[in-house]
Amino acid sequence: MHPSTSTAASLWIFGYGSLIWNPGFSFAERRKAHARGYARRMYQGNTYHRGDDNLPGRVATLIESEDEDTNGVAFRVEGTTAIEQALKHLNEREVGNGYVFKLVRVAFDLSESRNNGSSDAGSVSSMSDSEEDRSEGPDYSTSILALTCIASSSNEYFLGPAHPMEMAAQIGAARGKAGPNHEYVLKLAENIRALFPQSEDSHLFGLEKRVREIVKRERRTTM
């Protein structure tokens, strides 16, 4: 499926994985946001960016979960040309690796302030200054539809759930064209923690802890 952009002047794109710090497309605005009814899980296999055919890496996808929401970043892309370029990029980067386009209901975060600067990449942790006196969490009184990419269990690369130690071991060992799989997981956890200090993503942060232990142990053995 390729979304039609012939009459669209504006498109919101929701990123919950590496798009957070490396969108790869131009945008007019980015805001902290939450996708309601979804949980982020490292269930999708990757044999190019973060793994190979012999040892697939694990990357994030969204799993339907009625009582949860997934935090991330919503990018507003303006103009037909920019939208088409963004969709082409996502088609090559995500759809070519087992994902499909899907519209999800997204609510902006209460704590964030708008960042209207256009950009192509970079960390999103600079989106807002110190906001200790402001609330954090989704504002579901207002929400939008945003395009995202989701890898379902029916795609050929899907690895699915496993014991956390097994998943951490896979992540610690896999490496792809974009670098080691552990780098992806640690960077995602760091970005989520920086953007959402009160986040309680036990799946991601639990894997992060185990992966750090594996990386630390491997570094000791190579010294």
Q: What top-tier CATH class fits best?
A: Alpha Beta
The chain-level mean pLDDT equals 89
As a percent range, the share of helical residues equals 25-40%
| CATH architectural type | Roll
Helices, by number, come to: 4
In order across it, which strands form the biggest sheet? 1-3-2-4-5
Describe the largest sheet.
5 strands, antiparallel
- Please tally the β strands and state the result: 7
What percent of residues are in strands? 25-35%
What is the overall silhouette? globular
Low-confidence stretches: 121-126, 128-133
Mind telling me the C-alpha Rg?
A: 17 Å
What's the CATH topology name?
Hypothetical upf0131 protein ytfp
Order of helices and strands: EEEHEEHEEHH
InterPro entries: ChaC, GGCT-like, GGCT-like_sf
GO molecular function: glutathione specific gamma-glutamylcyclotransferase activity
Family: Belongs to the gamma-glutamylcyclotransferase family. ChaC subfamily.
EC number: 4.3.2.7
What topology emerges from the helices and strands here?
Layout: E1 10-15, E2 29-46, E3 57-78, H1 80-93, E4 100-109, E5 138-150, H2 164-173, E6 175-176, E7 179-180, H3 181-195, H4 202-221
Antiparallel strand pairs: 1-3, 2-3, 2-4, 4-5, 6-7
Helix pairs in contact: 2-4, 3-4
Provide an overview of this structure:
- This protein is α+β, with helices and mostly antiparallel strands and 223 residues long.
- It has a single domain (10-221), classed as Hypothetical upf0131 protein ytfp, CATH 3.10.490.10.
- Helix content is 26%, strand content 33%.
- It is built from four helices and seven strands; from the N terminus they run βββαββαββαα.
- The protein has helices at residues 80-93, 164-173, 181-195, 202-221, and strands at residues 10-15, 29-46, 57-78, 100-109, 138-150, 175-176, 179-180.
- The strands form two sheets. The chain has a five-stranded antiparallel sheet with strand order 1-3-2-4-5. A two-stranded antiparallel sheet has the order 6-7.
- A hairpin with a 2-residue loop joins β6 (175-176) and β7.
- α2 (164-173) packs across α4 and α3 packs across α4 (202-221).
- The longest helix has 20 residues, at 202-221.
- Mean pLDDT is 89; it is low at 121-126 and 128-133.
